[in-house]
Amino acid sequence: MRFVVVTGMSGGGKSTAMKMLEDAGFYCVDNLPVSLISTFAELITPPNSTIEKAALGLDVRSEGSFEQMNQVLDTLKEKGYEFELLFMDASDTVLVKRYKETRRIHPVDGQGSIEESIKKERKMLKSIYNRADYVIDTTRLLTRELKEELDRIFLKNEEYNSLMINVMSFGFKHGIPLDADLVFDVRFLPNPFYIDELKEKTGNDAEVSDYVMSFPEAEEFLKKLTDMIKFLIPNYVKEGKYRLVVAIGCTGGKHRSVTLANALYKALKNQGNYGLSINHRDA
User: Which of 122, 128, 240, 272 has minimal CB crowding within 10 Å?
Assistant: First the structure.
């Protein structure tokens, strides 16, 4: 019997994760009152139960405080119920953006301010976050990439750590990404912008990619960068870092940076027990 408790920041992707787990064969119940958690666990775990996988979604709209939820989870552990805690998260900036786009009311009263509501909720959830078995940061995750993460953890049962790596391309003329942890400048490479047949294309096109990678400097840069990132990953994991944004920039963010970002993503793909995503900010 595999029992997963799914919680996290409002707007962090909990509902989406629950739907994906349901599609994966989990028996899912969302927003169950805290007082009924123990009863739910008892109902799904008898010897003759036909339920092999279950997921329980909890958020701040659930009855009772999160302090009570902590106590209930402790009680489940004491009674011998095995469960895994999945925490869905995203950066505050993205959470604000999601709420403004959907025009929904945040479930936590922040005196009318979405930013204050998010800050208050994050403080409420700190103890739950600290005890989570898995943290998935959806700040830059596509729906497809989130599904891959959930499949990796709950279907393929691969070894897991909470580090989510986002490889990003950008253009310096549009500004350095504010959330970048590591920034690399590839403007030392010849610029396809000045070649008429490549000017209107991007690094996602084979012609541009082949041109950029035809230079020995590009291959050497990629090799050194990949080696460094692979060296850093276990050290970041050891320090508890769960979000790493690697930003690669060129002048306009369409040719060289896109090519190298794609190449780095390919080099890191399926090379470790970390999440990986890519986006091209200015392409």
Answer: 240
Q: What single DSSP character describes residue 163?
A: -
CATH class of 2-154: alpha beta
Spans of all domains in the chain = 2-154, 165-280
Question: Token pair of 142, please?
Answer: 């596509």
Specify the pTM.
0.71
Neighbours of 214 (CB within 10 A): 10
Give tens-digit pLDDT for 114-171. 888 898 889 888 888 888 989 998 988 888 888 988 988 888 776 666 788 999 999 9
| Mean residue pLDDT across the chain | 89
Note the pLDDT tens digit of each residue in 12-39.
999 999 999 999 999 999 988 888 888 8
Contact 282, 170 (CB under 8 A): yes
- Cα–Cα distance, 44 to 25 (Å, whole number): 14
- What's the CA gap between 236 and 44, in Å, rounded? 38
Q: Positive or negative, the Cα torsion across 136, 141, 145, 146?
A: positive
Sign of CA dihedral 74, 77, 83, 86: positive
Residue 63 has pLDDT above 50, yes or no: no
According to DSSP, the β-strands at 84-89 and 2-8 are parallel
Phi, psi of 6 (to 5 degrees): -110, 125
Phi, psi for residue 7 in degrees, rounded to 5: -145, -170
Place of tokens 């279950």: 54
